[in-house]
């Protein structure tokens, strides 16, 4: 039984590492403006229903070339609620109102990572208190709206050096892509080997 518990622990650890590797792949999204759907979370059912009713299902993700990520999130029902606030990884962030209508509002804010936890707090007049819920981007629904052109700084260098640097850059980028894409496969392979080896040892001891 102890061996089986150890095998289960190892498999669970490997699975977590694989998920982290896939999540890190989101950071490779090319600069541009994207539409992306979201999910919501609240600990109570009525909170979930309210969040889904007043939060636009589709928001926008702006990926800037310098590693900055901006979200543009829309809310409705502003005649019943106000004082919208956003926290990222537990810290309040500055928000910019990019669009406002009679009963709608769109807010823009910045996150440091695409894996950041996003929460919003809204004051509901009828309840006379804040309602807080999570906003969860669904990266499987990512849809490009506009691609951004990244400006490259031109430097005066000799033609030979420029060609060499270009070749080295391309090779480095290819190696990096191959490394990132193979990471989950390597982890999964290691997990499989460990499980099989453990099973063999367990079978021998049982005999």
First-last Cα distance: 14 Å
Number of domains: 2
Our count of helices gives 3
Poorly predicted runs = 1-24, 154-160, 179-207
How many strands in all? 10
Q: What does the largest sheet look like? A: 10 strands, antiparallel
CATH architecture of the largest domain: Sandwich
CATH topology of the largest domain: Immunoglobulin-like
Average pLDDT figure = 75
Please state the structural category: alpha+beta
Highest CATH level, the class of the largest domain:
Mainly Beta
| Share in helix | 25-40%
How much of the sequence is in beta strands? 25-35%
Order of helices and strands: HEHEEEEEEEEEH
Organism: Intestinibacter bartlettii
Region (Disordered): 153-182
Domain NEAT: 29-155
Protein name: NEAT domain-containing protein
Outline the structure in words:
The structure is a single chain. With 207 residues, the protein is an alpha+beta fold. It is 39% helix and 33% strand. It folds into 2 domains: 2-25 and 158-206; 32-147, Immunoglobulin-like, CATH 2.60.40. Strands 1, 2, 3, 4, 5, 6, 7, 8, 9 and 10 form a 10-stranded antiparallel beta sheet that branches. Strand 2 and strand 3 form a beta hairpin. The longest helix has 48 residues, at 159-206. It is elongated and about 50 Å long. Residues 1-23 form the signal peptide.
